[in-house]
Structure formats: C-alpha cells, structure tokens
Amino acid sequence: MKVKVFDNSALLYDYLCEKVISKIKENPNITLGLPTGSTPIPLYERLIQAYIDHKVDFANVTSINLDEYVGLGPTHNQSYRYFMDNTLFDHININKANTFVPNGMAKDLKQECENYHNLLVLKKVDLQILGIGTNAHIAFNEPGSSFESITRVVPLSKSTRNDNRRFFKKLEDVPKKAISMGISDILLAKKIIIVAVGSHKAEAIKNMIQGPITEEVPASALQMHSDVLVLLDQEAAKLL
Ligand code: PGA
After folding, report:
1. The whole model's pTM is what?
2. Tens digits of residue pLDDT in 207-233
3. Is the beta carbon of 49 within 6 A of some atom in ligand 1?
4. Catalytic: 67?
5. Which of 12, 34, 36, 38 to mutate to test the pocket of ligand 1 (most atoms within 8 A of CB)?
6. CA-CA distance, 84 to 73, in Å (whole number)?
7. 182 Cβ below 6 A of ligand 1
C-alpha cells in the first residue's frame, strides 16, 4: 500500500479530486466505484465545481456504489441512492442510467445481490474510492466478514449503527441490514484509493496498514491488492 499524509484535509481532497479528474481524462468511459458517508462529500463538492468550471466531463462515466440500506427506497432522505443523487449525480452530466446503487427495496433481495455482483464482474471498476469505518469496515463488510464475500445482505454491527445514528432521528430508525458489495468484489477493482480523515479513524488505519491480514479487520484485505493508495490527514495518521 502506498500511503500519503496531508497537512490538512483540504489539501487531501484537492489531491484526490485532481486524481479522479485525471483518471476520467485518461479514460472518459471509466467505471468509478463510489462510496457514501461523510468522507466523500468534500470530493463530490470539488467534482461538481470542476464540472461547472468545464474541467471534467462525466457524460460517458459509469458509477457503481458500494452499498445501500435494506428497506430504504430512493426517495428516503437517508437512502444511499438519494444521497448520491443529491450530493453528486444531480449536479453533473453523468447519465443516470449509468449510475448503479443496490436497490434496498427489491422484492427478491437475493436476486438483487446476485445481479449486482454480476454487474461488477461485467463492468469492472477502474477506480474504487473507499472510506473506512471506525471498526475498519469497508462498504458494510463488518469485522468477521469473509474475504471471499460477494454482494449480499449483511447485518449492521452495533458500532456502525451507532456511528450512523447521527443521520437519523433515533437509533431505532437506523436500518439493521444493508446490501453490500463483498470484500472480494471490492478487490476486483483495478485501482483503489482509500481515504480517512480525523482521529476517530486512526486506530482502524493503523490496523489496516500495520496489523495482520485478518477478517477481524476487513480493511486489512486491502494489503492483498497490488494498487492501493491510502490518503490520510495528520489526525488519521497519528498512530502510524
Ligand atoms: P464516514 O463513514 O465517511 O461517514 O466516516 C465511512 C464508512 O463507514 O465507510
């Protein structure tokens, strides 16, 4: 893994945004793997500004998101489809038909997961952007997830539901399950950039980079991938 530490998060996101733009310029038909959560928001803001400034064209870009809550539809303001539309897609010229987020309202969730996995195999993510949970999850692959896992319905851990509680009125409103790309799905990406900002991520980052490769630390699976770039601010890097 290549690790880059920035003096502050603004510099990190400037760098990340430039990286994404240069990848799109290199290959206008790129497939991007995209995350939700707080971490990517400053990236999405910069990408929107770059689009407004005519510095990037998303017309032929495909995007595949990591996960979605089970039971929340696209109009629910905490669903990840809603988040992606509002935070990025509605502000750029990406073709919505080429943006993929699992359908958390699918009648047959098993079939939905299978279709999503097949989509990943077919489209092949060129550049996967990841955040990391305080428990070192990637997507919603919680500690203990098999490294062989593919897209499936997963239970959300107590710590993840607590972390995400801030987006809901009360803890009981945080869904207990999600559809998540599996670890092996994520490792299919040709290039991975994982981003962490803030001291609450420091321990997960230390375990991901310096700890043993273990299913108890889902992000440690990234040590097995040949092209991973880790972008950190000083706080997230403080235990390295
Ligand atoms: P966050 O979540 O970006 O909201 O911190 C990251 C994650 O859980 O993967």
Report:
1. 0.96
2. 999 999 999 999 999 999 999 999 999
3. no
4. yes
5. 38
6. 13
7. no
At 68, give phi and psi (nearest 5°). Answer: -160, 145
C-alpha 209 – ligand 1 centre gap (Å): 17
pLDDT tens readout for residues 159-213 = 899 999 999 999 999 999 999 999 999 999 999 999 999 999 999 999 999 999 9
Question: Where do runs of H (alpha helix) occur along the chain?
Answer: 9-26, 41-52, 80-87, 109-123, 158-164, 183-187, 202-210
Domains of the chain: 2-231 (3.40.50.1360)
Query: 173 catalytic, yes or no?
Result: no
| pLDDT tens digit sequence for 84-103 | 999 999 999 999 999 999 99
Phi, psi of 146 (to 5 degrees): -70, 140
